[in-house]
Amino acid sequence: MIFRQLKELIIKEMLLLLRDRQTILLLFLMPVALILFLSLAMEGVWTDKLTGRKIQLVVENKSNSPKANLLAEKTKSSKMIQNVDRPMGMDNDQIFADGKAHAIVTIPKGFDEGDKPVEIYFDPVIDAGYKIAARSLITGLTVEVVMGIENLDAVVASLVVEKTKPNKELPTPLQQNVPAYAIFAMFFIAIPMSIGFLKEKKDGTLQRLFTYPVNTNLVVLGKIMPYYLINIFQFILMMLVGVYIMSHIISFSFHLGEHPWHMLPVTLVVAAATTGFGVLIAALAKTPEQSSTLAATGAILMGVFGGIMMPHVLMPVLMKKLAMISPMYWAHQAYLDIFLRDAVFGTILPKLIVLALFSGICFYIAGRRIKWM
Amino acid sequence: MNALDISSITFCYDGATVNALQNFSLTVADGSMHALLGPNGAGKTTLMRIITGHLRNYLGDVSIYGGKIPDQDTLRSIGYAPQPISLYTTLTAMENLKFFGTMAGLKEREIKDRSEKVLEETELSSYALKYVNTYSGGMLRRLNLAVALLHSPKLLLLDEPTVGVDPQSRHHIYETLSKLNTEGMTVLLCTHIMDEAQRLCSKVTLVDKGTTIFNGNMNEICDLEKLFLEKTGRGLRDE
Questions:
Q1: Which residues of A94-119 are buried (b: 16+ CB within 10 A; e: fewer)?
Q2: What is the predicted pLDDT for the residue at A311?
Q3: Which range, A349-363, B70-84, B214-228, is most confident?
Q4: Does some domain include residue A175?
Q5: Which residues of B touch A15 (CB under 8 A)?
Q6: What is the b/e burial string over A268-285, where b = at least 16 CB atoms within 10 angstroms of the residue's CB?
Q7: Which residue, A125, A157, A189, sits at the end of a domain?
Q8: Residue A165 forms part of a structural domain
Q9: pLDDT mean over B191-195
Q10: Can you say whether the dihedral through the CA atoms of A241, A244, A250, A256 is positive or negative?
């Protein structure tokens, strides 16, 4: 009888949840929309950071002397440059205002004679990093042409060697956003979970339920399990969206890392943390309205602090430390361990212990505070 | 054996300075229909919550067909229709009945058969697959009653079963109760509708300020409303 009762409790909870359109939108559509739009918004910035976006450059050769021609040709053929023809009838300000180019290089008459220097005009709002890179490129090429050096980089290579490690900290927009907003949406389960509980308390269905020979622990399990399962389903859905849809929409692919099976224990623990948060809200709030405000505010704050809205690696030092108070930080870092760092399970385990502790504390406080009737 | 024996119950809510029930006793005979009347705040709902096992830290003794709450068989012998419409409104009537039937420990076949029976009794058969949030006030009350009847309880507890319904639905609910009582079901009816209580019930208990102020046979009472006002006074009970 216990299993039949549990099954029926789960079915009832699922039906109530799945027939609530707003909840479906909140739990499934919101994270998909956030992943899509925020990844698109971040795509440009990330391209610059990771691969160095090509600088859109107008090269004007007013000299047409041999050296000027060589400089123009070298500039245009640089891998860092995307050559742009000057649009007809547009002055520099208009070109920058319309986003046609990032910079304009003018080789003046008299360049060969050394009378006049090469002129560079930058879009006033261009990123400082771009500006340095573009100026360095033009300077280097000018030095090559004027000094008659074939390849300055080859000369410098014997003097300066770059030893940067491969990047394992800065996630791509998809590596950042897919797990981030999956976690964010999973924590939003606290809203329907707590509202459902408080509504049942208010309308007397919970009271009625306890007039039947049903165990309280079974009712608790029947209330938690559906949300736990939905959390797992949410995560799977977000992964599918990331791997099969988002990878085709934005220019970054979404790799699951060398140990994708680590997602299973991480997701099981994250879902325990999110349902713990939901139970805590249900225990603390007195009305459905109160619970929805508490849950949404709590989830947003955890997201802001936890590196969901902004990658943790880009945060200032103080914020990086503060992030550790958010369970979303630990959840997100655990997923980044899998997707970005190809970490072994031992590296992920401490994060799971923190999440399990968070879950345990939530359930403990809720157990002490909750009033069934 | 009596259906319900309550002896010398005293109960106080957390933080309250006055007892909600004070040395309260009540006996409901098997097969009877018993009216429990009292002004607002008299302690009727508290009593219902004690009988159904929601409130437990009371002094005194409650016995239902000789059993004690929360004994499983004792719980199964009670059918309770609370005053609020305690149904899942985004489920259909059938889904509600299946849920509560399973909670009551009925088997699938029993749930199906009994659901058809109680829906027929409450004239809701043609609305069985409609969502409850599309029901009118009278239909909701009838379904609230149908759920309480589903597992064929021996003792039916009704807390204001006709609040907010039209005369047709009220008449139908009372006709159903009368029929069930004739078939042997014991009914404890909490209501403010005096003429219905007088017409349907054989015994009456008046409760006020947590104590019994009258207990007797209905056929000995000429005008129940007059007696009620004499015993409980005409002053408003807004506290």
A1: ebbeeebbbbbbbbeeebbeeeeebe
A2: 84
A3: A349-363
A4: yes
A5: 90-91, 95
A6: ebbbbbbbbbbbbbbbbb
A7: A157
A8: no
A9: 85
A10: positive
The closest CB to that of B105, out of A1, A207, A209, belongs to: A1
A163, part of any domain = no
- 8 Å CB contact of B53 and A213: no
ipTM: 0.87
| Yes or no, beta carbons of B88 and A16 under 8 Å apart | yes
Report how far residue A69's alpha carbon sits from residue A112's, in angstroms, rounded to the nearest whole number.
Answer: 10
CB contact under 8 A, A214 and B98: no
The distance between the two most distant Cα atoms of chain B, rounded to a whole number of Å, is 53
- Give per-residue pLDDT as tens, B115-133: 999 999 999 999 999 999 9
pLDDT tens figures, A237-283:
999 998 888 878 887 778 888 899 999 999 999 999 999 999 999 99
A314 and A188 part of one domain: yes
Chain A hits for B52, CB-CB cut-off 8 Å, are 210-211
- List chain A residues with CB under 8 Å of B163: none
User: In a mutagenesis test of the B interface, which of A7, A212, A217 is the best target, namely the one with the most B β-carbons within 10 Å?
Assistant: A212
Please check whether residues A88 and A230 belong to one and the same domain: no
Query: When comparing pLDDT for A156 and A355, which is higher?
Result: A355
Do A87 and A209 fall into the same domain? no
Residue A162 lies in a domain: no
Question: By residue range, what is the domain housing residue A221?
Answer: 2-47+170-369
Using CB atoms, pick whichever of B91, B102, B104 lies closest to residue A15: B91
Number of domains in chain A: 2
Give the β-pairing of A103-107 and A55-61: parallel
